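re: ur question from yesterday

yeah so i grabbed the chain u mentioned. its 352 aa long if i counted rite. heres the sequnce exactly as i have it in my notes:
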Amino acid sequence: MKKIPQITHDSLPILDLRAFYNLETRASFLNELQYIARHVGFFYLIGHGLDTQRIQEILSYTHQFFALEQQEKDHLAITNSPHFRGYTKVNGELTQNKPDIREQIDIGAEQKEIPFTANTPMWTRLQGPNQWPHQWPDFRQVVETWLSDNQRISIDLLHAFLLALGVDEKSLDPFVLKNPNESLKLIHYPKVSSQAEPQGVGAHKDTNILTLLLQDDTGGLQVQLDDHWVDIPYVENAFIINIGETLELATNGYLIANKHRVISPQNKDRYSVAYFISPNIFAGNIPILDLPQHLKNLAKGPTSDPKNPLLIDVAENNMKSRLRSHLDVTKKFYPNLYTTLNHAQGGIYEKQ
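ran it thru and got these structure tokens back, copy pasting raw so excuse formatting
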């Protein structure tokens, strides 16, 4: 097997997806992917089929959205949506109970909401419509096309991951091919003074299968490896790929979802576009893949934070994350759960 260098302070492995599509180079690609996935967990992806023009287009629309008047953005407030879709102001989302210094808009697959009754599982409310700028139809078209392209790339990449792990590439198709629970965040991190709290977004793991992140050249993204925080610099036209908790569950901990964070920029604003793919919300418990024995022997079970336990039901795990991160939505649409969360945290959200 080809050895891939460990991550350093100024490098991250780069994989070219064209090598996966080419049968002559596929085996080498899969060897590299298996090593990187196990020992690094983050990598750059090029050769994904999206050219510079497409990438600059989505970044341009991201800039344009956040340049809208505050009143226009507030009209799309996430607090309008029990489905956690819409715009969040700076300091409006929490990570580890601290506000993130970023604004964002959350968008998912455009679907009708599921009628909610007392007997309906709470996580069914993850499905629902988006909020779009009414006077800007091009925005919706560009974003939905980006969603579609990212879904294609992520499913191809998931197939590559499964082959690299020595299992059937279609093992998870029943969970992701039909109506995957996908989410897109357009994100703006405003620059801050050197004296300000630097949490652009706090240290966390993603709940999904895979994340495709497009970032600008501002910097600030860091990954935790061996108890050290490592900078992840910009690479032109490359996605940054990371493993989410769902893939960690499916491999019984052979692959680990890495913690990562963003340090608020001081010199100029940072913009990024993050795509997350998860199984269909009706998937239930993610199955444990039947890894080859030599890999299975290395799988020690998924990690779990006692303060934020990992749930095997993928929809429940996703819903748990949303409820904790967007307390304003939780308080408005899920008041009983808000009270429970507040009590569990010792009343830090508001005194009882």
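noticed a couple things. The two ends are 58 Å apart (CA to CA). also The chain has one domain: 14-344.
anyway ttyl
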